[in-house]
């Protein structure tokens, strides 16, 4: 596959980023295609100029920090255990915005097969993958590289496929055969777990267990399979730039390669692989409706040269056509806790989020009452 021009030798003055992005996009081969073409240097469009996305040195303080791991065993039939878990979810959501869960009801073998499905698709022959490459997000199955390709200030070393599994599941033939069965099966398990998590988060806010579900926070389920090929120069680029998620909750399967980091107290902290665990994080919309009680935390993925990193993210939010207004939940407001944000529909929020690109700035700031 012909690779996009690297620009370098002609000097910075000759570099036309827009043309380089267009050439990369029109190749329809993604980052994996670049790597397969035999390049040994990172093309200029991937060179990271952002300080907040540069690799950070490990420190003693950072190495001692640990993302909470919460055991969900027994929450259905042990009231005391459930109260303990709800407290742990509240603590983690307030202090970290991230936590991991074990004994969540999804087997290790299923999680392994989900990641293998992502890998199998991304390692298909390039001509086969090109059939699915598009930036038309009305499609039920979309494969491309960098969904912020033209808006983002830095191009991520990452390819992605995405599909919407609820409220209207796609027909099986929508999917490539190499990942069809596992995607359809996993979506059912992810939705079941998502509804359980929304119950726990509702209770952690002091609300009825069904409160967030009845607000349609888990109406839409989107699955995103990320593939990060090994990078020849991981120190100059980024796997996934600093960002916060634009949903209510995210459930992530990650492999053992590593690279996921969260920004905690101005320190980048690794989110380690824990066998059998799923990574859970709050999205911007949960921070909005919880009136800043539960944090949506910036995170990123460092590029690696030790192998391809694979992950599967499940995003939960309301459906595109749902015109429900979301603002701070009235039941948790008081004189001491007045609303911080104005109301918005989920779609309006997403439209704004997508126009900003992933520049590391918090999109939620736009919705603060002081800015409206």
N to C succession of SSEs: HHHEHEHHEEHHEEEEEEHEEEEH
Mean pLDDT: 92
The dominant shape is: globular
Structural class computed from helices and strand pairing: alpha+beta
Helix count, per DSSP? 10
Rg (CA only): 20 Å
How many domains, as an integer?
1
Uncertain segments are 1-11
User: Could you name the CATH class?
Assistant: Mainly Beta
End-to-end distance: 49 Å
CATH topology name, in short, is Jelly Rolls
Description of the molecule:
The chain has 372 residues and is of the alpha+beta class. It has a single domain (8-371), classed as B-lactam Antibiotic, Isopenicillin N Synthase, Chain (Jelly Rolls). It is built from ten helices and 14 strands. The strands form three sheets. An eight-stranded mixed β-sheet has the order 1-2-10-7-12-5-4-3. Strands 6-11-8-9 form a four-stranded antiparallel β-sheet, with no helix packed on it. Helix 4 crosses helix 7 (180-204) and helix 5 packs across helix 7. The longest helix has 25 residues, at 180-204. Keywords: Iron, Metal-binding, Oxidoreductase. GO terms for molecular function: dioxygenase activity; metal ion binding. Belongs to the iron/ascorbate-dependent oxidoreductase family.
């Amino acid at each position: 596959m012909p690779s996009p021009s690297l620009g370098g030798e002609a000097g910075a003055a000759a570099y036309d980023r827009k043309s380089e992005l267009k050439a990369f996009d029109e190749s329809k081969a993604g980052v994996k295609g670049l790597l397969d073409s035999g390049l040994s240097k990172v093309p200029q469009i991937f060179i990271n100029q952002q300080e907040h996305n540069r690799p950070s040195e490990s420190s003693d303080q950072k190495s001692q920090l640990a993302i909470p791991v919460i055991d969900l065993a027994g929450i259905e039939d042990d009231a005391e255990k459930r109260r303990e878990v709800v407290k742990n979810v509240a603590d983690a959501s307030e202090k970290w915005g991230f936590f991991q869960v074990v004994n969540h009801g999804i087997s290790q073998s299923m999680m392994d097969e989900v990641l293998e499905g992502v890998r199998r698709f991304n390692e298909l022959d390039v001509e086969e993958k090109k059939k699915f490459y598009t930036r038309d997000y009305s499609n039920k199955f979309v494969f491309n590289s960098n969904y912020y390709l033209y808006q983002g200030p830095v191009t991520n070393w990452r390819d992605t496929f995405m599909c919407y599994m609820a409220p209207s599941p796609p027909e099986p033939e929508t999917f490539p055969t190499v990942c069809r069965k596992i995607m359809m099966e996993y979506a059912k398990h992810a939705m079941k777990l998502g509804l359980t998590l929304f119950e726990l988060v509702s209770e952690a806010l002091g609300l009825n267990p069904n409160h967030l579900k009845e607000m349609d926070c888990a109406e839409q389920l989107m699955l995103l399979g990320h593939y990060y090929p090994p990078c020849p120069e991981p120190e100059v680029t980024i796997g996934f730039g600093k960002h916060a998620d634009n949903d209510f909750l995210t459930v992530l399967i990650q492999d053992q390669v590593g690279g996921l980091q969260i920004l905690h107290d101005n320190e980048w902290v690794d989110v380690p692989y824990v066998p059998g665990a799923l990574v859970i994080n709050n999205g911007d919309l949960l921070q909005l409706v919880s009136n800043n009680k539960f944090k949506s935390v910036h995170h990123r993925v460092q590029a690696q040269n030790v192998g391809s990193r694979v992950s599967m993210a499940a995003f939960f939010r309301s459906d595109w056509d749902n015109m429900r207004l979301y603002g701070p939940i009235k039941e948790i407001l008081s004189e001491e806790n007045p609303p911080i944000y104005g109301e918005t529909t989920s779609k309006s929020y997403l439209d704004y989020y997508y126009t900003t690109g992933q520049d590391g700035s918090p999109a939620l700031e736009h919705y603060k009452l002081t800015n409206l």
